[in-house]
Amino acid sequence: MAAASARKPILISGGGLASLLLARSLLRSKIPFVVFERDASLIFRAQGYRLRMSNEGLDAIEEVLGPGFDKFWQATSKTGGAKGFGLLNAVTGEDIEQDGTTQVSKGEQQAAGGSYKVPEKLATEKLQSRGGKTIGISRGDMRALFMEGCEPFIRWDHHVVSYELTDHGVKAVFADGSKSEEGEMLIGGEGIYSKVAKQLSDGKLKTYDTGARGIHGQSPATAFKGLGEGVWRLIDSTNPQGQSFIITNVRPEDMDDPKADLGWTMSATPGVINPPNNNFQIVGETAANMAKSLTANWHPKYKPLFDEMRVKEAAFWKITCSTPSGVPVWKNENRVTVIGDAVHSMTPAGGIGANTAMRDSALLGRLLGEAGGYKEGLTAAYEEKMRVYASEAVAQSYGLASSTFQIKIDENTTPVVGAESRI
């Protein structure tokens, strides 16, 4: 970093996964940078659910980390299991056939309004990547690993709300009205409520509320013995309000460890999960009790996931998505661009969003490394390539989510506004 100290830094807004991976790329290229994160520390808020990494996401991370990738790889879980993605009837405990049908009881048929069906795209979702395994890692672990070596260049408790172009660079503007030092560029990576993205695109970048909701939870690894190794989706279609399900990744190395916790993510079609007053900052007992209530009629072998859950770790979340028509075109700005959820918010289906964000960081980091920092035309080159794969990813994510959550969004849907708690 010292060799490049004569250059103004690259300013990065947000300290999420995409921002920190980009920071690691700049660190490796000896390009000065500063990360501005609105949270007070890495552990200020919940770190969210476990992510499943695709080959594309892993390739991007390996490109950036280089020799450091081995440490990242060792921190991931490699889940096998002959079924790959196992589909289970949460109430009866029976397997759901991959063609989308299963036998259900008369009572379930009446409650669900007919036969028990699984959407085709849900049944064909592919999760396996390297070595035929499903590779998973928690957001918190990823952030900590990506941050290594970058700590001196992170400014905590700095909430970027806009930017100001100068004659020879750009400055970030913070919520308290103060401004950063002048940087060569500003990269907006502060998530779905990015003020940088809104300003840069003149409002063209929008995030939509799908209406679907979820609850994150943690339980002791021993509570998952009724499932066994694998990536599982437990589906409940008996609720008159709509379908709910959980996804969990049961890792063989932890299943018998009473000190280890595993996570699960509950999701539901619109109308099933509703935080009080639509307040997504509510965590703990309220979210835990709702999860327990929604699973009260589930098969006994799955009940330990909720009976033994870590109540304090439970949290609501809102499922959002960019418009499925793809990443829009805006007037390019040489000094400013955006990465990750700030430019392409996606549903959790297939873990596509996080993997696409990793591709953003690798691509932009590669271009900056080749140029040795800022170069005219660099943001245009990045955005041109990013729009192609990111638009494909948003369409794929929306396609999976539309069948899973029974939602429909387009340019006529009201976009999300404001800033809320992030998971």
Walk me through the structure.
The chain has helices spanning 17-28, 55-65, 69-75, 106-112, 120-123, 139-147, 195-201, 285-294, 304-307, 352-371, 378-405; strands at residues 10-13, 33-36, 50-53, 77-79, 85-89, 101-102, 116-117, 134-138, 154-155, 160-165, 170-174, 185-188, 207-220, 230-236, 244-250, 261-268, 315-322, 336-338. It is an alpha/beta fold and 423 residues long. A hairpin with a 7-residue loop joins β14 (230-236) and β15 (244-250). The strands form 5 sheets. The protein has a 6-stranded mixed β-sheet with strand order 5-14-15-16-13-17. A 5-stranded parallel β-sheet has the order 9-2-1-12-18, sandwiched between helices. A 3-stranded antiparallel β-sheet has the order 3-8-4. The protein contains 11 helices and 18 strands.
CATH class of the largest domain: Alpha Beta
Order of helices and strands: EHEEHHEEEHEHEHEEEEHEEEEHHEEHH
What percentage of amino acids are in beta strands?
15-25%
Biggest β-sheet strands, sense, barrel? 6 strands, mixed
Features:
about 425 residues; alpha/beta; FAD/NAD(P)-binding domain; D-Amino Acid Oxidase, Chain A, domain 2; 2 domains; six-stranded mixed sheet; five-stranded parallel sheet; 11 helices; disordered C terminus; flavoprotein
